Amino acid sequence: MTGPAVREAWSALIEGFLDAVWLVDGDTLRITAANAAAGTLFGIEPSALHARTAAELSATPEDLAFWEGVDHGWQDAIVSESLVRRFNGTVVPVMRRVSRVESDGRAVYVVVFQDRSAHQATQDELEHRLSELRATLESTADGILVTDLAGSIRGFNRRFAALWNLSEDLLTQRDDAAVQAWMRSSVVDVTDYDRRLAAIRDATLLQTSDVFALHSGKVIERVTLPQCSRGQPIGRVFSFRDITEKLAASQRIEELSQTDPLTGLPNRRLLADRVEFALAMAQRNGHSFALMVVNLDRFKHINDTFGLGFGDRVLLEVTDRIKGCLRSLDTVARLGSDEFVLLVHKADAQGAEATARRVIEAMSRPFRLDAVEFTVTCSIGVALCPNDGDNLDELMRRADAAMHRVKELGRASFRFHQAQADTAPRSQMHIDHAMRQALVSGHFRLHYQPQIDLATGDVVGAEALIRWRDPVLGDVSPAEFIPLAEESGFIIAIGDWVLAQAVRQAAAWRAAGWDFPVSINVSALQFQQADFIERVASTLSAVGLPPNRLELELTESILIHDAEDALHRLKALDQLGVLMSIDDFGTGYSSLAYLKRFPIDRLKIDRSFIRSLPGDTGDVAIVNAIVQMARAMQLRVIAEGVETEPQRQFLLDAGCHEFQGFLYSPALDVPAFEARLGRPAPPSKPSIRLVTG
Predict the structure, then answer these.
(1) Matching Gene3D superfamilies, A to Z (predicted)?
(2) pLDDT tens-digit series, residues 174-209
(3) In what order do the strands lie in the sheet with 78-85?
(4) Cα 567 to the chain's mean position, in Å?
(5) Fold of 3-116
């Protein structure tokens, strides 16, 4: 066939190809034919490719070099990945194959282009996803290891290598056996590690987690999941996490929840667990045990003087001393600032006493911190199980009550729970509640005890004394409820009520013709209130009672607690015009220097000095001294608790001005008091009676 015929035959042949095909003349290196697929690939009509040189349509230096080599006869075939540039300027990846054939004695190059765009896009997407997967694996805090079902390593991230301290050599060698051997040698409990790993390999779909320790000190949590493809297991994914710090933090939280943060001793929660165990053992074996409440005496003074940091160091020293007094099976717990609880196992009364004495002896030794030497004593209350209770709350309550009894008796000792004293906390609680209800319900009332002029026998005053008859408790002595009221602060409300009632009654008597001062007792807490003076003034003003018809009885302790503040208040009361006296004089610690400055009108000799008169020479000397001192300071003197005529006569001879007591009259309600005065109110002045409830 001639040349044109040959070209036509080749053109017909290449049209049957799905890939793009050129025919290139071997002499001119120009395209002599191109199929429709080539036109599609290059984005142009196939005929437009005719007569163009192959080099002209080359898009890479490699192709240009090839056609130059063909032109010089150096090479005549090539198969490689390449790029072609379409006529719109875009570049298309192809697999290019060039073959030299002979046709009618002439060289013809057949150039086949396989479009790899779709394949390249798939490859790019795959690489992108793999890159994302690698980035995800590397960014996770967990170490990831992927294996096949046989255990061969298929992949891991750097976090995995760091957790297991894998060397660079192991990472580059890709030696699975060496990596697995390294991991096994790093585990503390190899037997358990092998057992768990074998179980994982035997169950291809097993999902599990476990924890193991490494020799490096790390604690590793391993989570194992099957890797599946199309529903079939093909391998395993191991996730490793370092939980060392998390575990330590969890343990620390648990310790803090059960221990005192300063001393490290058990707190109430852990103590409760140990007491519960001790109770179970006692019930099973019949053994008794002791629960002891240890409270430091006046520890607040240490904090106030040296600061809380110094106090904490003292508590640490106290902890060591107490621990040194116990056996290893016993427990010492810290429940509060300066309160410790001892659980002494298998201890009867004798054993508990021995422990208590050891603690007291250890505490009696001098403390020395920062060149400061001081003493810290303690008070101990003891309760025995099962005699004193069979649960923590009951034992604690009774040991605590015994400890407080030690405080009341002078501190620095120990005391066992006593059944007859156990009702005190409950009765105090009942009294406190009933006392508050009594004020609202009108169950309080005032009785008045006459105050008598020793020289004339006339009634020259009255002391208001509170009385309480409760519907349930009956008559409750002031000695019972007044200390509770002072401790709780309720004494302020009671004091205000007494002030108002006494002032109204004094005004009523004055209007009826009985004109003398009425005295009331003032508590320390009431006296220290910022608006106390204003309350007194407003109460007097409300009923129109002259201030000199009210006398306030103050104890020595009130006046010396803060002498300068007390002096300021006393001067304000003196300017107001009320009378003031020192109650129970001689039982406190009055300074004569302060006493001289206080605007006091009367001294009231305590009944304890009157009781043995005139036979007790000591009391005789004391009373004579008080009277002489008062007269020298131009103060009136009144004695309370006078019950016999010899007592009255002695006081008269000694120069005492007034007295009160059973010799003349006990404290009386309003009608009895008025009857005891012996004269009715003048008809022109109607008597005003106070409703006392």
Answers:
(1) 3.30.70.270, EAL domain (3.20.20.450), PAS domain (3.30.450.20)
(2) 788 888 889 889 999 989 888 888 888 888 788 888
(3) 31-34, 20-25, 106-115, 91-103, 78-85
(4) 44
(5) Beta-Lactamase (3.30.450)
